[in-house]
Amino acid sequence: MALARHGRDHDVPLTLPGDAISALVDADVLPDPYWGRNEYDCRWVAERDWTLRREVTLDRTDLTLVIDQLDTVATVRLNGVMVLEANNAFLCHRVDVSGAARIGTNLIEITFASSVRVAAERQAAQPFFVPFQAENSVIPNPNMLRKPQCDFGWDWNIALAPFGVYGDIFFEPMPKARIESLHIAQHHSDGAVRVDVTAQITGDRASDVVFAFNGQDISVEAGSEAKASFDVANPELWWPAGLGEQRLYDLTVTLGAQVETRQIGLRQFEHITTPDEIGASFAFRVNGHPVFCRGANWIPADALPSRISREKTRDLLQSAVDANMNMIRVWGGGRYEPDWFYDLCDELGLMVWQDLMFACALYPSDEAFLSEVEIEVSQTVARRHHHASIALWCGDNENVGALTWFEESRQNRDRYLAAYDRLNYACERALKQADPQAIWWPSSPSRGRLDFGDAWHDDTAGDMHFWSVWHEGRDFDHYRDVGPRFCSEFGFQSYPSMDQIRSFCAPEDFNIAAPVLESHQKNRGGNARIAETMFRYFRFPVGFEDFVYLSQVQQALAIKTAVTHWRSLKPRCMGTLIWQLNDTWPVCSWSSLDYGGGWKLLHYAAQHSFAPGMVTAVPRGDEIALVAVNDTRAEASVSLKISAVSTDGALRSIATAKAHVPTDAAEDVACVPTAEIRADELLIFDWEWSDGRRGQDHYTPRPYKSLDLKPSGLNVAQDGNTFVLSSDRPALFTALEADIPGRFSDNGVLVLPGADVTLNFLPQTPGAMANATARDLYSATYGPTKERRTHA
């Protein structure tokens, strides 16, 4: 299609699905918005109206126009006749165009009104001001539009307000009858499952509907709906990653020429919120088994929808599974992901916590807005509810807390609370009508339905967002001061890896105070907070690349402290979801994966912290408890060897221990007096589980800056893409940086004298060979040698 700005005579090609910003970049009308400070030269696009035009040849007129994910305020005309006025980027529109179509050449036009202008107009039309978080939303009034809220800017996102069509767009013949939607319900009992399928039918019901599932075919006469039930004896169940297989059964439903297909995983989700002596639990049971949720928050895979692909998304989700994650929270300020996203989660065993698309703001509650939202929720749930991966539907992200953020809502809480409750209830009602079996949670964080209190600082019930360490500048040990029942957000920032910094920044701008670097930091005070924390824990880095490395070390250390401690509290705590998994563009953020999918040191650390079986050090008064955590479905025993190593490399044995750990439990294995660890020593503990899984970790009761590190003598021997690390003295947080895309089998490791560590590099391009740069804590903070090249 051809894209034109109103009042201009030039046309730019735009391939659909796609967004207009990307098309303008490809046509050299705009610079790459991700490079340098180009973002600010691209924002004018969202302030204008634009039109897409294309001529199509039709051989019939009894047609339906299908447009999926039309973003956002758009008018569609066919041969000059208005056939659709759209206001919601999350819908799939089906429009009868038989009155406008003609045989032969037809002109289809889509006019996109400026989202910036329309949002301002709708705000002005409200009976009272509806606040939004201006610190995040650089472009104002995102809450007025049913559009990804982060498109207007966020504290990790670029502010471009893209527009376009992101799903299918096509004409199809109008059928005499059509399957409008399918509802699928599962009933589990006594080792068997009954699957009920209901097809909602519109139009002429003369034909039969044929259902096929698990080798059974059922033909039903079509009315306004058609139903079939299938009994599955001895079913192969779908399990989350790490707990079993992800068996998927094929379902087909046929009406005339229309064939609907679904893949069904047979599983039973239960959400446990039982009152207890603490408050109330927040946990999931899958197929009768309690599951500790280990995962991260998901934001859109790219700020520009044209740059999102199934292949790139699969790589991000595979990285989550490879880091021992079993849950993804699709955050409410982005978008409902395409159908194939949930197919991937089904296949990979990633449970999905699905927010509805409302975040960090208050919203209108007039009838027109609520009616639009109810259609959105109904269509969204009907389209996606069958996926085995979907564990929970949540009403919004942080909107209850937002009632306290704005002067308007603090001064008139009743007005804004009533508006919030109207919207939240409309969402719940539409959800339950679309899927009566759906698990509903009103908001995140929240203590539960009709509780509008402060869930940020309450760890007795519900889910918690714990941000005191980052936003309040608290010590990492503050993570140990709370025992959340389920922490669905917590995070700490780092810089992106050097390959990403080089993708948007010239070497002359390699300085954290440079305007380019500051423009790729969207959280107010973020750079200062990263630097201030370094002073607290580490000696200051020698150079810019050392600073980037050390920012990732401390991010990994912060999140490891939270994850391992909260896992040690199970069953009090039954879930930790890191903020965040991915990035939308190259930026300083809380992500564990760089933009493009590279692994930060946090992601390598998460692979260990989220291991189904691990041992962690938990300081308790004047002792250090060593706690074994078993997240598997089988009980196991663990053997532990406890040592201390000095900065000059001397290793001394402290104790050995062994413990039996039941399934899905945490058990103390040993305790070491804190005084046992000398000022120049680290506590080292190695473990082996009865099934052969091994691990090692270290702990220091003092800041790393207090250690008088000695030159580690780090040596890296390379054979192809295999790297063998050795050292004369402890080399802490040893990290390799490759010169080609890919990832290592591990990174950020401790290398001890006499205990070589072998790392394998997995190139993105099969057969490619990597060179690598090595850093450890000594080289990054003592210098003068900051880098060490590998040698063959």
Verbal overview:
This protein has a six-stranded antiparallel beta sheet with strand order 2-1-4-10-7-8, covered by helices on one side. Strands 27-26-25-24-23-30 form a six-stranded parallel beta sheet. Strands 16-15-18-19 form a four-stranded antiparallel beta sheet, with no helix packed on it. The C terminus is likely disordered. The protein is built from 15 helices and 45 strands. A hairpin with a 2-residue loop joins β18 and β19. The protein is of the alpha+beta class and about 800 residues long.
Keywords:
alpha+beta; 792 residues; 15 helices; six-stranded antiparallel β-sheet; globular; disordered C terminus; six-stranded parallel β-sheet
Mean pLDDT across residues: 95
Report the total helices.
Answer: 15
- Integer-rounded radius of gyration: 28 Å
Note the quaternary state here. single chain
DSSP summary, beta strand count: 45
Tell me the structural class.
alpha+beta
The parts where pLDDT drops under 50 for at least 5 residues are 785-792
User: What is the 3D shape?
Assistant: globular
Q: Which percent range fits the helix content?
A: 10-25%
Query: Main beta sheet, described?
Result: 6 strands, antiparallel
Percentage beta strand: 25-35%
The rounded distance between the terminal residues' Cα atoms is: 53 Å
- Largest sheet: spatial strand order: 2-1-4-10-7-8
